[in-house]
Amino acid sequence: MSALRYLTQPGGSLETAIWVQKSTLCLLAAFPYFLYRFGRLLWSATDRWNTWATWFTALVVVVTLAAPRLPALNESWPGWAMAYAVLLLSQWLTLSGVTSFQMYKQAGGQPAVVRKRMRMLSLASVLLSGGLISVVLLSAVDRTVASTTLLQPMALGSAVFFFAGFAPPAALRRIWRRSEDERLQAAQLGLMAAQTPQEVCAQVLPYVAASLGGWGATLVDGTNALIGAHNVDPEAVDHATAGDEKLAGPG
To answer: CA distances (Å), 184 to each of 134, 179, 197, in order?
Structure first.
């Protein structure tokens, strides 16, 4: 991201500089697309959205390879260069925006560590998009302000959040799991005082549902008879277990 402000600067062999610029811009366009493809594993995106994202990214890549060298930031930009900048920004902001929103939204029902990691990735994408917007909009006024005041801090913050999302340190994971560990300890203490199967279910099932990212859980015996349920309609459980299939885990 920090190299973005140098993409339009001339220097060295003109032909080499043009292809370095084109290659970098293609990678820039591919990043939000690959982030979208990764994020859609966590939610059910429609075929129309997937097709649109692929073709939109392909269009940006084709236009990038076909276009002449972009002028330097301190040069006059012709209409085609402005149109290209709008196209690239639209593709980046749309895909990264959809991915960030869906990651943050879908994280709500996940276990603590998964939820935190998804939201770290969401915030990282938002910061990266903010840095891109700032360098494009403010470079026309003051490139130094755009780079040192906004772009570099946002790029650094985005890198930190991406690291925390993809490979969080063990100490950070322990902090994120603290609330679930406390619930587990409370469930263990409750089990020691439980006298009936229903009391056991009341202690265990809420923890099981939360740990697996579910909203409900049930416990049945070997004959599919319902022992206990948490946030699940007992009639729905009886209907689901009417056949030979066994119902276990989150509801």
So the answer is: 45, 9, 18
Q: What is the pLDDT of residues 102-114, one digit of tens each?
A: 888 888 777 788 8
50-59: long-range pairs with CB below 8 Å, 24+: 53/95, 56/91, 56/94, 56/95, 57/29, 57/30, 57/32, 57/33, 57/91, 57/95, 59/87, 59/91
Residues 230/216, Cβ–Cβ less than 8 Å: yes
Say if pTM beats, i.e. exceeds, 0.90. no
Beta bridge partners of 229: 218
Q: Which residues of the chain have pLDDT under 50?
A: 1-6, 8-12, 244-251
Give the whole-angstrom CA distance, residue 144 versus residue 22. Answer: 24
